[in-house]
Amino acid sequence: MEEIADGVNKINISESQKKNRIQVSNTKKPLFFYVNLAKRYMQQHNEVELSALGMEITTSTVEIKDDSRGRPIQKAKIEIVLGKTVNFDELMAAAQDDRENGNGED
């Protein structure tokens, strides 16, 4: 779990194309990587956009170049925008205090 948190902390948010967008994959990183990353983004932005591609989603499609075939293919796309609650910063500060005092989960 610590290595996931370390990976999240090492990411430079300003390098991304859209500063509050997270590209989610179910094959590259574990779920908690994205949860922790979304929390970190929420501390810097009022909204976080989750973006993912997958064949099981039927909301819309986008054309992607398939490097192995050398031609474009259609993939399903979904985007989710998370909004910060009024007490988000307070909850994050309390969670940080718990971790520092040894009361939080690792």
UniProtKB/TrEMBL annotation:
Annotated InterPro entries: Alba-like_dom_sf, DNA/RNA-bd_Alba-like, UCP030333_Alba
Superkingdom of the organism of origin: Eukaryota
An annotated GO cellular component: nucleus
Domain DNA/RNA-binding protein Alba-like: 20-58
Gene Ontology MF terms in the entry: RNA binding
PANTHER family: DNA/RNA-BINDING PROTEIN ALBA 3, DNA_RNA-BINDING PROTEIN ALBA-LIKE DOMAIN-CONTAINING PROTEIN
Protein name: DNA/RNA-binding protein Alba-like domain-containing protein
Taxonomic lineage: Eukaryota, Viridiplantae, Streptophyta, Embryophyta, Tracheophyta
